[in-house]
Specification:
alpha/beta, 8-stranded mixed sheet, 4-stranded antiparallel sheet, 14% strand
Length: 422
């Protein structure tokens, strides 16, 4: 008798994977990398920070001193939680956002992306509910899908997450018998919408979750990049026992170090450390000690101010170009961060339009990437963080040409156009 067929001609191990492997999906942004890396394409898609203003010569000298003076330590294993002097440095960074952090409750992660993954693994069983903003960060949605979470979106407006909508959503979900495990939120200069949760709403959101006994995962990679220099108090400050706060050096220093952190109540932090030790044994000592030296020896906050000024100019270039070339669209005007969220004219589908935009040598991220339920076809995210101002303007000009053609096609084939046939 013929044996059981194993795998497929494309993947001989297809029948061996765990069931959860079927829930892994490719990011719509990562899928664009091969295209947008072409020099002739203006990419308004990715969220890569511009690190050209970093003091590279000084950083190179610092790295040389670090290896020659502390090589035996810097190239060795470290603690699963993180190197203690570096944890203290992180606490000082968090103080700028009004958090009085105990270094003992900080865990160093491989970017805040790993922190999202670990917290999700700790709290989510298949079918558990995560409440997330509408729209929400694509990288988090990928993690949630891999862990088979049931993501339910909650409404936002120009002032961020709406506490009343959050309260109603959680109440209805619990009444229907769902297990709501946590709220995932990016309150400052939101990715992808660019809006910021108002100071008035922050304690309100915390109180809603406290009342319903729902954890908050506060993801804050952009909080120090407000164009006015203002920093908002973290939601964590209103409910320290119910918030896991995630931070990252990718946006305020350099993403190549891949260093972020989670700040959690002691009982959650213990489980995070155990998960980290299982996954990576210990975070990179090279990265921790290099970043610690940078924070100690250089004017890191002055560098953040330089970033703010540069990103503000690029935001202005984006808004000016949208005003000139895409007046039929609507968009947010962010007060910080990397992104604006653009609503397309009625009937234009951002996902199906993307190949035609790439043909015109411009790329963006379709709005569908930022929803778990198929929404977002009428939106796109535009990033102004990486391209210089003249490229931003040229990219929007090219994009406007594509949108204009899409609108023309809509009018041409619309069933209710004047003079049409039955």
């Amino acid at each position: 008798m013929a044996g059981h067929a194993q795998g497929t001609h494309l993947d001989p191990w297809q029948d061996a994977y765990a069931a959860k492997a079927a829930h892994l999906k490719e990011s719509e942004i990562r899928a664009l990398f091969a295209v947008v890396s072409r020099p002739e394409v203006v990419s308004l898609a990715g969220g890569m920070p511009n690190i050209s203003d970093l003091p590279l010569d000084q950083l190179a000298e610092s790295a040389h001193r670090l290896i020659t003076s502390h090589g035996a330590q810097v190239l060795q294993y470290g603690s699963g939680q993180g190197w203690e002097p570096f944890l203290e440095s992180i606490a000082e960074v968090m103080a700028v956002e009004h958090i009085s952090a105990d270094p003992g409750n900080i865990s160093v992660t491989t970017g805040s992306q790993q922190a999202i993954d670990i917290v999700t693994q700790l709290f989510i069983d298949p079918g558990d509910v995560i409440v997330a903003e509408s729209p929400s960060y694509v990288g988090a949605l990928g993690v949630f899908a891999a862990q088979q979470a049931d993501v339910r979106h909650v409404e936002m407006d120009e002032n961020g997450l709406i506490p009343e909508a959050l309260d109603e959503r959680i109440r209805d979900l619990k009444a229907a018998g769902h297990r709501v495990k946590f709220l995932y939120t990016c309150p400052n200069y939101h990715n992808p919408s660019g809006v910021t949760l108002s100071e008035e709403r922050r304690p309100q959101a915390a109180e809603v979750c406290r009342r319903h006994h729902v954890l908050i995962v506060e993801d804050n990679p952009y909080g120090l990049l407000g164009f006015s220099g203002r920093t908002y108090p973290a939601i964590q400050t209103y409910w320290p026992d119910g918030v896991v706060y995630l931070g990252s050096f990718s946006k305020i220093f350099a993403p190549g170090f891949r260093i972020g952190w989670a700040y959690a109540p002691a009982w959650i932090r213990k489980k995070i450390v155990l998960s980290l030790e299982s996954a990576v044994l210990s975070p990179s000592m090279v990265g921790q000690m290099a970043l610690h030296g940078y924070l100690r020896d250089y004017d890191w906050y002055g560098q953040v101010t330089t970033y703010r000024d540069m990103y503000r100019s690029r935001r202005d270039a984006m808004v000016d170009a949208l005003t000139e070339f895409l007046p039929t669209c609507q968009w947010t005007v962010p007060d910080g961060g990397f992104y604006t969220w653009v609503k397309l004219p009625e009937g234009v589908n951002s996902k199906t339009m993307l190949p035609r935009a790439v043909t015109e040598l411009v790329a963006y991220t379709p709005g569908t990437a930022f929803y778990a339920d198929g929404q977002g076809t009428d939106y796109m995210r535009l990033s102004y963080c990486y391209p210089p101002e003249d490229e931003i303007r040229e990219g929007v000009r090219r994009l406007a040409r594509v949108v204009s053609r899409e609108v023309e096609l809509q009018h041409m084939f619309s069933p209710d156009r004047s003079g049409g046939h039955e």
